[in-house]
């Protein structure tokens, strides 16, 4: 890598905000000999342009020996982030490659067939006459031979060991704060009745009742591997397969590979990975989950390049992040980029209505619903995004809002139509609110696309998840709060995208205030400034708001006295919780705000 090339590789004609200073600091960090540089840059600071500049510093074929790694990778966990890169004319030399299932075959009669189920994947020795024009293999050939290959983190990890995508000089990972969690997800082995074709042929023992569930799971994994091999052999020997048979073959090979990796890691006394075993009591589905899979990341990420740049707005704790991904903090440099958006343009407002933990949300949701009505009235001509956290909360809010007669201003989505529903909301000129689930990241709502948003619930991880409960039993409460804070900061960045943009974020769950108090030392200075300015807004009363937004139907509406009490009691509640250091908001137990999260 030549750090001096980073500045000249910046793709825009001029710098904005703190980009020039960031480029200089990144250059200096690599020039000092660091192999890994963390770039902590706020949302909207132009991280993709910084990423392109860093990638441009990679060694080229003209100044390399035949054995040297050259060129660079750009990767991100978010598919939408890759889509944004593809649409940005300043990044048109990032050559994008996606997984086979994203491309369709171009052969006659196969134009609706994904490439991973095309004749070349189904027939032994198939000689495709149009392979040179195949959209997948064409994109792969271009990306593998150009200076910057861009792909999702999933594809990047899956191609570890590939002869096509070999080690490169520089690897840039955007939105890198989630790298530990994404690695754990990718390294998890799910053995389920609906995803393994031979499941009915396997006897599943009770894996969790034994004193040593890991050893029992290893032996079970060996049994599954043998069963997969027996099922794969006749498929491999067939000259032609149906698309379903090809899918079965690929799934069996995938499971066998995943289980072989698990066994190898679990039996390695030097591996830092802790394996947690889950088993469903109803259908015997098994999930083999890793904690801190540093060895997995070593193979899939760290062995793929010479130099690494990891970019994010929310790598909150350098040392903790490095430990979670298997890096030595002493060998990693941190570059902090200041926020240049005026804090007055990105206010946080306390509209807390109570706690939204699993056991308390039924009491809180009516007040949250009324608060949404008041916010809609306060923003009569502006779109709003509601971060619901879960589909259960989304469904309840949708039903309650419909009962209050405002369904005409409500848009929502489910697991099957997320992108289509989001685009429909973005395209409308009406001041609708969008009830979203897990849209806290990689969403660019600049300008009038959205002017206000509500965080309905402190986004703590589910304490019933075995990995979460295992970490909490080990006392890792700082990690638990840090992950939630990351999500909140990411959510706050969705609606203010430039120095002259503006948008309001409303906090509906009182546990968010406790999170800010307990995780204050983890906050970037620019976000701490936002938190210190939290105020309680002046809003219409519920009665005024419902007359403005739309008259409620009689069904499901509580009496006016109840509505008034619940809505107006908010002011008293908010004022008692407004100061960040209030003694009343200190948790007496780490789980006091999150017990029974779901």
From TrEMBL:
SMART domains: HELICc2. One of its GO terms (biological process) is nucleobase-containing compound metabolic process. InterPro entries: ATP-dep_Helicase_C, DinG/Rad3-like, P-loop_NTPase, RAD3-like_helicase_DEAD. Keywords: ATP-binding, DNA-binding, Helicase, Hydrolase, Nucleotide-binding. One of its GO terms (molecular function) is hydrolase activity, acting on acid anhydrides, in phosphorus-containing anhydrides. Residues 550-598 are annotated as: Disordered. Residues 391-514 form the ATP-dependent helicase C-terminal domain. It comes from the Archaea. PANTHER family: DNA REPAIR DEAD HELICASE RAD3/XP-D SUBFAMILY MEMBER (PTHR11472), REGULATOR OF TELOMERE ELONGATION HELICASE 1 (PTHR11472:SF34). This is Helicase domain protein.
